[in-house]
Amino acid sequence: MRKLVFSIGLIFLALAPAAHAFEVEERISVGPADARRVLRVISTGDAEFFEPTLQDFLSDLPDVRIEYTVASSGEMMKALDQEGLNMDLAISIATDLQTKLVNDGQAQPYSSATTERLPVWARWREHLFAFTQEPAAVVLSRKALDGLPLPENRQDLIALIRDHPERFRNKIGTYDIRTSGLGYLYATQDARTSETYWRLSEVIGSVGVRLYCCSSQMIDDVASGELAMVYNVLGSYAREKSNTEDVIVLLPKDYTVVALRTAFIPRGSQAPELAGLMIDHLIARGWQAAPGAFSVLDDDSWSDDTQALRRIRMGPGLLVYLDALKKAAFLREWSSAVLR
Amino acid sequence: MNTPILLRGSIRRRLIIQLLAGAALLASLMFLVVQNYARDLAGQSQDEILSASVTAILDSASVRDGDLTVDIPYFAFSMLGNISDDRVFYAITRNGDFLTGYSDLPKPVASNGILPRFQTAHYDGEEIRMATATRRLSVSGTPDFVEVTVAQTRYGLRQQLAGISQTVAGFGIGFFVIAAVFGILAAQSAIQPLRQLAGSVSRRGLSDLRPVSAPVPAEMESLVGALNGFMSRLKTSLSRSEDLIAEAAHRVRTPLTTVRTQAEITLRRVDKPENRQAVREMIRAIDESSRAAGQLLDHAMVSFRSDHLEMEDVELTRLAQDAVSRLRPMAELRDIDLEISLPDLAMVVKGDPILMQSALLNLLDNAIKYSPPDSTVHVTARRTESGAEITVRDEGAGFPKADMGRLTRRFVRGGNTDAVVGSGLGLTIANEVARAHGGRLFLTNHSDKGGACASLSFPLA
Q1: Buried-most residue among A35, A40, A89, B45 (CB within 10 A)?
Q2: Burial of B263 (0-12, 13-18, 19+ CB in 10 A)
């Protein structure tokens, strides 16, 4: 019976009344339509992936309905920061934008036995809580690589592209960091870590690059053979697809940037207790929502080369690349390197 | 008899209260001072790191291709995150125009100096600490003023202070407890000499009016001086009255001797039986008065000599023999046999021979007086565990049980003595002598044969 209630959870698209100025990608409702309590979640995570976790959460709370709104990290920032949208929980992979929202006073504190279990790097100010680790991966098409040695790090990638430009011409994909928050985060952290990033960007730019909004599309295009390689995609999505024979997922050995998928309770939340329970649930089970992602409670046991991991540290440092001047300068440099 | 003593306050309590109040004051003073110091120190370290951040950003400002660029270094903000989880705000202006950051951040105070300046302000509902510095750059020949402000909330500072406060409060309480313990001990030891003095005075014998000779703290000099002065005045007035009594007794006794002689002469001349009886009554009364006067003199002497004991070695058996031979004529007059049994060994005690003699004579005199005619008075001496003992036992009626406890008081006589002349001072004298020598007078009744039994015990030399 309950299952039936869940399964009739209405799924409707953003065509619904445009009450908000920000761009909604997708909106679903899980739980009974006449539920007494409602939890409004805004998230960057695809509804397709998150719905099972939401249903799992509701299995103990029969009187709760979740309204799950999907938006890009940039739109989410706009909605919460500028438009003052009332939401009960904000979930995003863009660790830097989440940090800025918390820093700018958009969050309210929360703590529980579960949040106490988090490692120190997985929470900030008792406001922002990470629940998955999302390494940036390189995905290669096995067919395109046919006969060539498997690259292990960025130097290998640069050499590979230089030596075989024809195989990669216009067949490399990456985020359009001008529109994708996660892409920008990965790129800035990359650039902060090593100069190699710029050299690689220039090499990629020299053979022609295709820009994407989202990881899933890029990975699909590699799987279908349309692309030979994508750089800086969500490792979790890539691992999800890596059971297909055509795709190789590479976590670069020189360094692998790890973003954190985080949640916080907006200060305008009307159901902070419920939102807190949801945070606890995400910390305990949330890695299931992002297939192939790693739980924060696993620390770095999932990696076979922990020295290479560059986990993004939540804190004021993340504000630097969000500075308007800094961002404009970075995008200029990126454009001149990648878009020839 | 004891006048109730009115009490007001307690020196010990007052001392303890004052010491505790002092300790509490010091502890809270320490708490405030350390807390203030910690606040200054914590505030200073926040200022320093804000200043470092501002300087790092200013250093990144440069003129490139003829235009001003500010490239905020990553560490300028990340270092702020190293020490606390505080929120960070910043603003960069160029010639007063907002360039980037948080445009609604409070305006920093104006200054011409190049050193960073600090201020505390409120922003977005929270207290923030701001550091601001200005630098002049030259862009295409015209001066450009870049001003950078970095601000941080003070959440970490407050937490740090709360932690310090807690620690310092713990220290303060610990300090107070230790000081309190020492204070109570100090108060106890401060009044200890008072207790000692009170104890030594209250342990003294009734007639011990010697001045306090044990050393006392300087603060008690006047008290002990006053006490000693008081005692010496008391002693003077006591000895004056004793002197008066002795003088009076002496003056009474001498004419009494004359009166008795005359009465005896008269008795021989008088023939009428009723007149002879009257004169005999007279002689008897004269004897009684004379005897009382003698004992009063004795007693005065005992009181006097007890205060100035002249100790020498006294052999008790010899003492007993002397006393017995002195009273033998008086005993024979009444057909009373004096039987003396002494051990072979000598028993030497330290004491005043005159006083001891007087005590023994009084006991013997009593025994002879209260013995029925044709009876025996036994005098024995023996060693005991703690000293030597001389016992005088008669075969008379014994001490009345009811009076046993008070017979040694002055002028108290037993209830069964009406027929006998006595002053009620004999046992008093014996008792005082025994006590003055550290000994005791025991009064008992002989269990089977009856008769009073008085024992003088003295510690051996």
Answers
A1: A89
A2: middle
B26-79 pLDDT per residue, tens: 999 989 999 899 889 889 999 999 999 999 999 999 888 878 888 999 999 999
CB contact under 8 A, A323 and B85: no
Strand partners, A29: A67
A320 touches chain B (CB under 8 A): yes
d(CA B196, CA B202): 10
In this structure, what token pair is assigned to residue A122?
């997985």
- Cross-chain CB nearest to B100 (options A105, A318, A324): A324
- The structure tokens listed for B89 are 């705000």
Q: Are B225 and B232 in contact (CB under 8 A)?
A: no
Give B254-311 pLDDT, tens digit per residue.
888 888 899 889 888 888 889 889 988 888 888 888 888 888 778 877 777 777 677 8
Q: How near does any CA of chain A get to the CA of B155, in Å?
A: 10
Cβ contact B430:B333 at 8 Å: no
Bridge partners, residue B145, by sequence: B136
- B-chain CB neighbours of A318 within 8 Å are 77
- CB contacts of B155 in chain A (<8 Å) are 125
Helix axes B273-307, B221-269, angle to 10 degrees: 160
Q: Per-residue pLDDT tens for B198-236?
A: 888 888 866 678 888 888 888 889 999 999 999 899 888
Q: CA gyration radius for chain B?
A: 51
Nearest Cα neighbor of B111 from B103, B119, B122 is B119
For residue B286, give the amino acid letter: I
Of A105, A126, A316, the CB nearest to B124: A105
Which of B78, B150, B159 should one mutate to test binding to chain A, selecting the residue with the greatest count of A CBs within 10 A?
Answer: B78
Which pairing describes strands A309-311 and A256-266: parallel, antiparallel, or unpaired? Answer: parallel
Task: Name the DSSP letter for residue A81.
Answer: I
**Record: contact B88-A319, CB cut-off 8 A:** yes
CA B148, B152, B158: angle at the middle one, nearest 5? 155
Cβ–Cβ under 8 Å, residues B457 and B384: yes
Question: Angle at Cα B327 formed by Cα B322 and Cα B329, nearest 5°?
Answer: 120
Number of cross-chain residue pairs from A and B with Cβ atoms under 8 Å apart: 62
Chain A CA closest to residue B60? A326
Backbone phi and psi for residue A59, each to the nearest 5 degrees, phi listed first? -60, -25
A37-66 residues touching B, CB cutoff 8 A: none
Assigned CATH class of A135-257+319-338 = alpha beta
User: Under CATH, which architecture does the A2-133+259-309 domain have?
Assistant: 3-Layer(aba) Sandwich (3.40)
- In angstroms, the CA B453 to CA B444 distance is 5
Phi–psi pair at A179, nearest 5 degrees:
-115, -25
Q: What confidence score (pLDDT) does residue B206 get?
A: 65
Structure tokens given for B362 = 């009084």
**Where are the domain boundaries for CATH 3.40.190.10 in chain A?**
2-133+259-309, 135-257+319-338
Which domains does chain B carry?
13-162 (3.30.450), 309-461 (3.30.565.10)
From the list A125, A126, A317, the residue facing B77 with the nearest CB is A317
Confidence of residue A5 (pLDDT cuts 50, 70, 90): very low
ipTM of the prediction: 0.86
- The string of pLDDT tens digits covering residues B291-300 is 888 887 788 7
**Beta carbons of B173 and B20 less than 8 angstroms apart:** no
B-chain residues within 8 Å CB-CB of A325? 69-72, 92, 99-100
CA distances from A149 to A144, A223, A227 (A): 12, 19, 18
List chain B residues with CB under 8 Å of A125: 85, 87, 155
Q: Do the beta carbons of residue A183 and residue A74 sit within 8 Å?
A: no
Check whether A18 has a pLDDT greater than 50.
no
